[in-house]
Amino acid sequence: MRNTILKIYILISILLLANMSLYFFYKISLRGYYSDVILFWFWFFGSITIVVIFWKKVLAKLLLAMIVLSLILSILPMAIPFFAFIFSTTPFGLWLDKNLNQRYRAQIVGYSVMAHPVLQVIEKRGVFEKQVFQCDDSQLLNDNPDVKIRQAKDIIFNHETDTTLSLTLFYGGPNKKLTFSKASGNIIEEN
């Protein structure tokens, strides 16, 4: 029984490390916002289970010490890493999530107390998905400083060509149409 639990924990740990590596290097992750969150919490509760089951082993005590020390050290520098951890592993970082069509979804997320939320456009690829565009308020070619990404009430898919993707941020008042270049990932037109 203990060996089975350990094998499952090792498998979840490998999946989490692979998911984090793919996202860090290639912006590819498991499909959906909550799949990464659920994988992390499986790993976290699995770590606690491993510590409890193998408490007499030195490695279990080192794992617990590493987790506690990581949390404490993330709180020391004004809790900025701690809040990034909380916002990225819970639904608190998600401001808006919208399926645009069968191929794309968009989300407005904020993972930091020091930075404004960003708009991410994500391409669905089966079980995985790849972030293709990301922009924040500073990248908007903004003529109205009161219109911010974080204030959008909806994201509407307009159209797609071979070289561009066009979205509308719906605010209920003046809406903002964004056209992204597929080659560079930058905003090339804004209305």
Account of the protein in words:
The protein has 191 residues and is α+β, with helices and mostly antiparallel strands. It folds into two domains: 2-76; 94-190, no CATH class. Helices cover 39% and strands 29% of the residues. It has four helices and nine strands. The strands form two sheets. Strands 1-5-4-3-2 form a five-stranded antiparallel beta sheet. The protein has a four-stranded antiparallel beta sheet with strand order 6-7-8-9, with no helix packed on it. A hairpin with a 5-residue loop joins strand 8 and strand 9. Helix 2 (33-53) crosses helix 3 (58-75). The N and C termini lie far apart (61 Å).
Head-to-tail CA distance between termini: 61 Å
Q: Strand order, biggest sheet? A: 1-5-4-3-2
Please state the structural category: alpha+beta
Shape: elongated
Give the count of structural domains: 2
Number of helices: 4
Give helix and strand order, one letter per element, not per position: HEHHHEEEEEEEE
Query: What Rg, in angstroms, do the CA atoms define?
Result: 20 Å
Q: What's the rounded overall pLDDT mean?
A: 91
The helical percent reads 25-40%
- Main sheet makeup: 5 strands, antiparallel
Q: How many E-type strands?
A: 9
Low-confidence stretches: none
Strand content: 25-35%
